[in-house]
Amino acid sequence: MLLLGLTGGIGMGKSTASAILARLGLAVVDTDEIAREVVTPGQPALAEIRSTFGESVIRPDGTLDRSRMAEIVFGNPDARKQLEGILHPRIRAAWAQRVGDWRSGGVGCGVVVIPLLFETGVEAQFDAVACVACSAETQRRRLRERGWSEEHLERRLAAQMPVESKMHQSRFVIWTEPSVEVHEAQWQVVLRTLRASLVSPL
């Protein structure tokens, strides 16, 4: 099985890429979805977050107050490391299990979407890594359209590795400025290249 890691800066098109790849028939798992799953009520991660950060990050209905959590961790690197220490091992175990299921089920090509792929040092787990990217201006416009304040936007961007570094370390770069059709056409080229590697080693 070919295993592709997909990364990129926030707001640069990872969700669109995931939808395209799923539509093209690939098995896809998004670690952002796993991150939401592991903090649902009753999960050990949520209990550890409550114990570490206090009741202020828990809503009255017992769910994680993601906005409050973001305010804390994106303004405090030590707090962010604490949260990552709680979440990242669980997220990695979950996607690794999914990959194991794909291999057992005879899946030909799978994709794991990991925003912090290089930051967490898992690139060696993949046959290839692709990075989606766009201009800084487009990125900021997309994030503003999510309703983000300038302060929150700056904190989130400062917390991530520069996308230029991710692009440099990736085998493929998908430019998401153009239309979805052009975005998909780039993936078609990537997939042809990857499938050719079944005959010629990567």
* Biggest beta sheet summary: 5 strands, parallel
Low-confidence region ranges: none
The shape is globular
**First-to-last CA distance:** 13 Å
Q: Structural class from helices and strands? A: alpha/beta
**What is the fourth-level CATH superfamily?**
P-loop containing nucleotide triphosphate hydrolases
Mean pLDDT: 94
- Structural Rg: 18 Å
The quaternary structure here is single chain
What is the annotated CATH architecture?
3-Layer(aba) Sandwich
- Side by side, the strands of the main sheet go 2-3-1-4-5
**How many domain regions?**
1
Structure annotation, total helices: 9
CATH class bucket: Alpha Beta
If you consult CATH, what is the topology? Rossmann fold
SSE order, one letter for each helix or strand: EHEHHHHEEHHHEH
